[in-house]
Amino acid sequence: MRDLPKYLERLRSGDKALNPFLDFMGMILEELADGYARFRMPVRHEFLQGAGVVQGGLIVAMASETIAHAVMTLLGPGEGIATIEVKNNFLATAKAGALIAEGKVFKKGRTVVVGDCIVSSDSGKALSRTTSSILLLAGQSVPDET
């Protein structure tokens, strides 16, 4: 498990090697605050499915990552997370431009955190609403990072 506060600090500074998935998806961190995360992801041609719109699983993956990063802002060294459940409602489609994901912690309990995320087009149209339940992992050893 990594030191999440240190991870977020390095992510803010633009260290793309920290999270290969974010880099692969082209997700760009725009803002982090206590219990909040915002990412932008340009729509690439490879993201479109047969009907010419962004494949829904990519939108859910973006929302899940955004919620996880919002939760990480509330954790300390030696704490970690694991997603328990993700529930999504699609509201509209996107074909081009960029997707904006805004994730917030709805409730942080002793062992479970519930977070919400709205993914919108860069024109402001809501595309999906996602809720995630995340298990808190506390008191585990943290390996050294270089």
Folded structure, characterized:
- This protein has a single domain (4-137), classed as Thiol Ester Dehydrase, Chain A, CATH 3.10.129.10.
- Helices cover 22% and strands 39% of the residues.
- The longest helix has 17 residues, at 56-72.
- The protein contains 3 helices and 6 strands; from the N terminus they run H-H-E-E-H-E-E-E-E.
- The chain has 146 residues and is of the alpha+beta class.
- A 6-stranded antiparallel sheet has the order 1-2-4-5-6-3.
- Strand 5 (112-121) and strand 6 form a beta hairpin.
What is this structure's SSE topology?
Elements: H1 4-12, H2 20-25, E1 28-33, E2 36-42, H3 56-72, E3 80-90, E4 98-108, E5 112-121, E6 126-137
* pLDDT < 50 runs, ≥5 residues: 141-146
SSE succession: HHEEHEEEE
Name the CATH architecture.
Roll
Overall geometric form:
globular
Q: Over all CA atoms, what is the radius of gyration?
A: 15 Å
Helix percent band: 10-25%
Oligomeric composition of the shown chains: single chain
Tell me the total number of β-strands.
Answer: 6
What is the end-to-end distance? 14 Å
| CATH-defined superfamily | Hotdog Thioesterase
- The top-level CATH class is Alpha Beta
| Overall domain count | 1
Number of helices: 3
What would the average pLDDT be, to the nearest integer? 93
